[in-house]
Amino acid sequence: MHRIPEPELMLDDEQAHAYAQADFNDPNSLFMQRFASEFPQEQIAGYVLDLGCGAGDISRRFAQHYPQCTIHGVDGSRAMLKYGREMLAQYEALRQRIEFIEGYLPNATLPMAQYDVIISNSLLHHLAQPSVLWETIKLRAKPNSLIFIMDFMRPESFRQAEIMVQEYVGSEPSVLRRDFYNSLLAAYRIDEVVEQLKGFNLGYLKVHEVTDHHFVVMGKYLET
Ligand SMILES: C[S@@+](CC[C@H](N)C(=O)[O-])C[C@H]1O[C@@H](n2cnc3c(N)ncnc32)[C@H](O)[C@@H]1O
């Protein structure tokens, strides 16, 4: 099945609201578990860049789990960031360590030139050019920065995508079911991601399938 792109930015308020309200506990917990198991010996500290942070659930989880980190979440959608900022208002203890920045990648203006950790969940499949993610990593990482990216894998067929919608978001509002379906169709296959990484001299990063519809790209950044 060919990839069918979807709009990059989630600008619509109804869409952003449905996303912010949805229960992403399973994939977002998996994100945190996999990050921890990939870097068990590392002291996770310093500045973290969350690319395409959306309504900020991963930024929040990261800040809670790693108290020595400051998180900069960047997203091009004001609507998504509005829900992120509302969420943050409920977590007084985290407010000093999370900053949400409105910015369109790859040209966003960020507070730091380079980051100790770069994370991203579900951004890659939104990008019109996947190079934006890999170029941003190359620009914003320094040697030994930790890189951890999770995204959807494109299913084999439309039918398979429909089955996954039923299985994973069957009880969510229709706007979210539609978004999930479109996201599955817009996602990359692992072999495509491996080719992208090679093209940016990032072929040393590991790519693992972690569920029937997610992969992760992870490793330490090496200057090449
Ligand atoms: C599916 S959401 C994921 C949000 C969040 N990472 C999460 O896991 O909940 C993808 C986000 O990427 C943002 N996005 C897409 N392309 C972007 C770009 N070029 N620059 C900045 N943000 C972008 C969208 O606005 C959207 O909020």
From TrEMBL:
Among the Pfam families in the record, one is Methyltransf_12
Q: Which Gene3D superfamilies match?
A: Vaccinia Virus protein VP39
Q: Which GO terms describe its molecular function?
A: methyltransferase activity
Which GO biological process entries does UniProt record here? methylation
Which superkingdom? Answer: Bacteria
Which stretches are transmembrane? Answer: none
Assigned keywords, A-Z: Methyltransferase, Transferase, Ubiquinone
Q: Which residue intervals define the domain Methyltransferase type in the entry?
A: 49-145
Protein name in the entry: Methylase involved in ubiquinone/menaquinone biosynthesis
What organism does this protein naturally occur in?
Beggiatoa alba B18LD
